[in-house]
Specification:
The structure is a single chain. Helix content is about 30%, strand content about 30%. With about 375 residues, it is an alpha/beta fold. The protein folds into three domains: about 1-65, Archaeosine Trna-guanine Transglycosylase, Chain: A, domain 4 (Roll), CATH 2.30.130.10; about 70-170, RNA methyltransferase domain (HRMD) like (Transcription Regulator spoIIAA, 2-Layer Sandwich), CATH 3.30.750; about 175-380, Vaccinia Virus protein VP39 (Rossmann fold), CATH 3.40.50.150. The strands form four sheets. A seven-stranded mixed β-sheet has the order 16-15-14-17-18-20-19, sandwiched between helices. It has a six-stranded mixed β-sheet with strand order 2-6-5-4-1-3. A hairpin with a 2-residue loop joins β12 and β13. α9 (about 265-270) packs parallel to α10 (about 295-310). The relative contact order is 0.09. It is found in: Cytoplasm. Pfam families: Methyltrans_SAM, PUA_3.
Length: about 375
């Protein structure tokens, strides 16, 4: 087995279950890639993982005790992930990367079909070991791969998209609390459906009242908008993805619900709308992928929130989500405060939510907390 030696003081974080050693934290390493044991500067054992000098994170820890990275190891990890998600229904995230002890792997389950992403060189190199274990643990009818994301390209890996195993339908039927979404896998974003907003969608449906007006910006397939329509509210969905809006249209027609649709960029569409709306939801895509991007993105969000506030009804609710680790709750609060000041709107924090339990947040891995939602209510004196 290969051996990696951490620089003085850099092994402590691995001892505390942080799974990454970066290039400038490694004192000695082999020339080639492979399964490796990591040791601290004093020779103490740290972890077993995979070392690859071409990866942006050269050492990724898989286990913090001695042992192989074989089929039995991965089978136990997948079975543990399944057990932790018992009772969550037919659609949920089965594997959430490092937080589930499987760095660089994401697996979403939609009934008897799995959709996965391989994001790192380490997991790609071990594919022939972990993939049979995944099939054994879950026994799906089909597996589809959507490894076509920027993180993979940063690793120097080619895109991989298409069926991997068994029978995979061209259109994935995603069910959530009685709503059905017919999603063409070849056109889907990420793994097809944003499972991480499930609890917020339930919360919205509980809060919306018949006759209210709901604006769902960055709607994708309109999962928020459809829940509002089901409660008897007027719902308007805004997105620049025509294929996603077509899915929304088909889903609404099938369920006998009405959702109005606007196609276009969020800022441009918001400038042309007339309010008021009792709920305005802003769920933009990952805007900040590197720390240096944060100032510009915060300015962009201030502009977005300012326009949203102009459309918000008195005592209405503004929902602002961020799905980037680098954009923290404090940043969202600052953005909202700046926009509210510009618009002379007094707001109160109604609630703050985070990602649901099938997207675990590990205390030891700060990056595993990525989704934050700030729910604000207009609060005039």
């Amino acid at each position: 087995m290969l051996r990696v030696l951490a620089k003085p003081g850099k092994g402590r974080k691995v001892q505390n279950f942080y799974p990454h050693l970066y290039r400038d934290e490694i004192a000695e390493a082999p020339e080639g890639a492979g399964v490796a044991e990591a040791y601290g500067a004093e020779g103490e054992f740290l972890a077993v993982g995979y070392y690859d000098p071409q990866s942006r994170i050269p050492f990724r820890a898989f286990r913090f005790d001695r042992g192989p990275l074989n089929r039995a190891f991965f089978l136990a990890r997948f079975e543990r992930a399944l057990a932790r998600r018992a009772g969550l229904g037919s659609a949920y995230r089965l594997v959430h990367g490092e937080a589930d002890g499987l760095p660089g792997l994401v697996v979403d389950r939609f009934g008897e079909v799995l959709v996965l992403q391989v994001r790192a060189r380490a997991m790609e190199a071990l594919r022939e070991v972990w993939f049979p274990a995944l099939l054994e643990a879950v026994r799906p009818k089909g597996v589809y791969e959507r490894s076509d994301l920027e993180a993979r390209r940063q690793e120097g890996l080619p895109d991989r998209t298409g069926p991997l195993f068994g029978e995979v339908p061209e259109v994935l039927e995603v069910e959530e609390d009685g709503l059905l979404f017919p999603i063409p896998l070849a056109l889907a974003q990420k793994t097809g459906f944003y499972l991480d907003q499930r609890e917020n969608r339930r919360l919205l449906e509980a809060m919306v009242r018949p006759g209210e007006r709901v604006l769902d910006v960055y709607s994708y397939v309109g999962a928020f908008a459809l829940r509002a329509a089901r409660k008897g509210a007027y719902a308007l969905a805004v997105d620049k993805d025509l294929e996603a809006l077509a899915v929304l249209d088909r889903a609404a027609l099938r369920m006998g619900l009405r959702v109005d649709i606007r196609h276009g960029e969020a800022l441009e569409v918001l400038r042309g709308l007339e309010g008021p709306f009792h709920h305005v939801l802003l769920d933009p895509p990952t805007l900040v992928k590197r720390p240096e991007e944060l100032p510009a993105m915060k300015r962009h969000l201030v502009d977005l929130v300012r326009l949203a506030l102009r459309l918000l009804a008195p005592e209405g609710y503004l929902w602002l989500s961020a799905c980037s680790y680098y954009l923290r709750l404090e940043d969202l609060l600052e953005v909202a405060r700046r926009a509210a000041g510009d618009e002379r709107r007094r707001l109160r924090v109604h609630r703050v939510t985070y990602q649901p339990e099938d997207h675990p947040w590990s205390l030891h891995i700060p990056e595993s907390l990525y989704l934050k939602t700030l729910i604000l209510q207009d609060d005039p004196l």
